[in-house]
Design a protein that fits this description.
about 160 residues, alpha/beta, 60s Ribosomal Protein L30, Chain: A, 2 domains, four-stranded mixed β-sheet, 4 helices, elongated
């Protein structure tokens, strides 16, 4: 939230808006270009994202210890269709070409699929399924999920 002190105070008085405020920057930025304003707020945004990512990775580690994590695209895609999903973690630029066979919910990677059956990004389909089931999706920096083959899913109430 950016603005002069009196405006920040007035806006903060609305308790229902507190969840959407990640931070405040005081000042008069009426004459500031959008590009320059972006440079001013970016450090605050970057810090907030980094904090959320650290929390997300702690959540993933705890779920992993509790045997509630499925890793790798094939296992994640299958789990999304068979188990209640909580949170999907995926690296930002991770893409997989392939197809999902109807009925069996099996993922077939691109090298085993006829050219006209290939879906450009199976990851997008997995994300859509998780969101439709009421789960959440967290994007992390590339390399963060190396031990999970770039994608991991926390499933609810999984048997040990």
């Amino acid at each position: 939230l950016v603005g002069e002190e009196q405006n920040l105070t007035a806006f903060a008085a609305f308790k229902n808006r507190q969840k959407i405020i990640i931070g405040t920057i005081e000042g008069d930025y009426d004459a500031t270009s959008p590009e320059d304003l972006g440079k001013i707020v970016w450090p605050l945004i970057k810090e907030t994202i980094a904090g959320k990512n650290r929390n997300a990775l702690r959540e993933l580690a705890a779920a992993s210890k509790a045997n509630q994590v499925v890793s790798g695209i094939e296992a994640v895609e299958y789990a999304v269709t068979t188990e209640p999903c909580a949170t999907l973690f995926v690296e930002e630029n991770y893409q997989v070409k392939g197809d999902i066979i109807s009925g069996s919910h099996s993922l077939v990677l691109a090298e085993h699929v006829k050219l006209w059956d290939i879906i450009d990004d199976v990851i997008d389909l997995v994300i859509e399924k998780v969101l439709k089931m009421g789960g959440s999706v967290i994007f992390l920096n590339n390399g963060t999920l190396a031990k999970h083959d770039r994608i991991a899913l926390i499933v609810q109430n999984r048997e040990n």
